Amino acid sequence: MSAVYEFTDETFEQRHKLLQFLLSSKVCEVTFTKVDGTERVMGCTLSKVFIPAPGDELIEPMRKVTNPEVMPVFDMEKGEWRSFRVNFVTSVKSY
């Protein structure tokens, strides 16, 4: 069962909590505005079920990200860690 969540007036905490919840157990399609103003749609997850095991130097999480406004996620298409700004997310579709 899939669901689409459109973000409009939510607080940062509400967005972050929902994204963390959905991404921790599923692969989601996240739509967000990049810093340069373009829109991006990314299939991503935080679920260990879908992320390759640690130890592979190409699959290490983005531990450098210390900005709480930025959420590191595993990009399923690229097979790498990427990130987006939580407040720039416009919608998320969970599967």
Which structural class should the secondary elements be placed in?
mainly beta
Shape call: globular
How much β-strand is present in the residues? 35-45%
Enter the CATH topology name: SH3 type barrels
CATH architecture: Roll
Q: Give the fraction of residues assigned to helices.
A: 10-25%
The CATH class label is Mainly Beta
Could you give the order of strands across the largest sheet?
A: 1-6-2-3-4-5
Distance between the termini: 6 Å
Count of strand segments: 6
Radius of gyration: 13 Å
Poorly predicted segments: none
Q: What's the helix-strand series? A: EHEEEEE
The major beta sheet can be summarized as:
6 strands, antiparallel
Helical stretch tally: 1
Count of discrete structural domains: 1
> What's the overall average pLDDT, rounded?
88
Describe the structure concisely for a colleague:
This protein has 95 residues and is mainly β.
Your description of this structure?
The structure is a single chain. Helix content is 15%, strand content 38%. By secondary structure, it is mainly β. The protein has one domain: SH3 type barrels (Roll), CATH 2.30.30. It has a 6-stranded antiparallel β-sheet, covered by helices on one side. It is globular. The termini are close together.
Per-chain topology:
Blueprint: E1 3-6, H1 12-25, E2 27-33, E3 39-45, E4 70-75, E5 80-85, E6 89-94
Antiparallel strand pairs: 1-6, 2-3, 2-6, 3-4, 4-5
Salient structural properties:
six-stranded antiparallel sheet, 95 residues, SH3 type barrels, 1 helix, 15% helix, mainly beta
